[in-house]
Amino acid sequence: MASTSAIAKLFGMTERNVRYLAEQGVIEKAKRGKYPLAATIQKYIKYLRSKAFEKEVEFGEYDRERTLHEKAKRQKAELLLERMRNRLHWGEDVELVMTEMLVRFRNRILGIPTAIAPKLYRKSVPKIAEALKTELYSALTELSEYDPAMFVDKEYEVLYDEEEDDSTVPKNSEGGSPAS
């Protein structure tokens, strides 16, 4: 049997901490102020190992979260680079350009009858069909003429030939790049 003060010296803590551990059931108490030495040491070592395991789990979670954070930062940087190279566009930009193209096409198609009706007055059916076909093909050709410059973001210059040029990265008010 060992006294409270002997256990406290052995574990490097106060007597009050020893009594607290006994109350919590961490170490074994035989009677008032007396502890079975071997059983107390074994239980305290088991307690410390369980605490170390908890810390290891917490540390593992931290590593996992940090890894996920770094992966997200890398993906963000890759997307920004693709945007700078004009290979990736914001959904809002694509929607705006496509809406503009389709509205122009719609207006062109709807304007065909008014534009060619006077030309077709008293023409034969084959001539009317040919004139309509010509106008429709012209409108469709205009729609098919895709111009990548419509999507170029004025904020970035397009990088050609995979060149790396820090001057193409817009600076924020602090003087750094937006991805930092």
Spell out the blueprint of helices and strands.
Elements: E1 2-3, H1 4-11, H2 15-23, E2 34-35, H3 37-84, H4 91-120, H5 125-144
Helix pairs in contact: 1-2, 4-5
Question: Which key phrases capture this entry?
Answer:
180 residues, mainly alpha, 2 domains, two-stranded antiparallel ribbon, 2 strands, disordered C terminus
Secondary-structure element order, N to C: EHHEHHH
Helix content bin:
55-70%
Beta-strand percentage range: under 5%
- By DSSP, the count of extended strands is 2
Annotation field: number of helices: 5
Mean pLDDT: 79
Q: Catalogue the unreliable spans.
A: 158-180
Task: Describe the protein in words.
This protein has 180 residues and is mainly alpha-helical. It folds into two domains: 2-79; 90-152. Helix content is 64%, strand content 2%. It is built from five helices and two strands; from the N terminus they run βααβααα. Strands 1-2 form a two-stranded antiparallel ribbon. It starts with a strand and ends in a 36-residue tail after the last helix.
